[in-house]
């Protein structure tokens, strides 16, 4: 498993991380522990959580099955600031309380990384800065980032937070790649040319902010998996041909497509299937050619200008 340097070497993470949003779908604690062990065996020592996943149960079950020895060999990231059905909340009080809750459920003294889950338009950046300072000083959080933010939102936060934002977690897959479409279609008067996110990909590269790709096998907003899906015949035909060429699974090709981008994007995969997780990791061993990367991009229905 190859690593990615976050924040110019502040922290090293595997280029594939395991998302824990769905782990409560596993019926037993043994099954969750077994999934974690499989991931660790494959070099995935990075686990992505959020206070809201399964209403907190995802963190809880994870904490139940990890002892101190195992925890010290892993990197745990969690998120806060979504209050389901209510609002987004970047207040100092909410951020700190949320981290306290995550630490308790995860049964750990510290988070390696904390992300602000979705932009809060009512944010006061001074409050976020205050929360980050306190959490860092107390040793409860080592590093910080955001999720689903555009460049100016990150600029605003970084102005007050002493450039602590090292990560932006964004939805990104072959079938959901708005963050690259606009850059390929600059000044073209079609839908793909519409710059919806302010050039977030280029901004992150410029500022050394690592992008993490969430839902790397999904299309739409949780509409489903594009692999083996009859809605994407050409894409699957192309993926299957490359899977055969490289002797890996179709999931591995989907991840290899993300890892091939020179932005050094970390893929956060959400599988709860041990075999699939092991298969996905083979993506780290292959490098798609430039021609294959663009062929997949177009097979997903995109056109080059
Ligand atoms: N920041 C945010 O706003 C945000 C939002 C959503 C998610 N996330 C993070 O991103 C992580 C990944 O998200 P995700 O779980 O939506 O991503 P995903 O990895 O794209 O999807 C995982 C799901 O797809 C299924 N799947 C994968 N390959 C399949 C195949 N070939 N055939 C059938 N089913 C297949 C998996 O089933 P199996 O379990 O059977 O493999 C699992 O249910 C989450 O765990 C979370 O940590 C962040």
UniProtKB/TrEMBL annotation:
EC number: 1.-.-.-
UniProt KW keywords: Oxidoreductase
Domain NADP-dependent oxidoreductase intervals: 15-295
Superkingdom in the source lineage: Bacteria
Keyword Metal-binding: no
InterPro entries: AKR, AKR_Detox_Biosynth, NAD(P)_OxRdtase_dom_sf, NADP_OxRdtase_dom
Broadest EC class assigned to this enzyme: oxidoreductase
One MF term in the entry's GO annotations: oxidoreductase activity
Pfam families: Aldo_ket_red
GO cellular component, one term: cytosol
Protein name: Oxidoreductase YdhF
Organism of origin: Robinsoniella peoriensis
Phylogenetic placement of the source organism: Bacteria, Bacillati, Bacillota, Clostridia, Lachnospirales
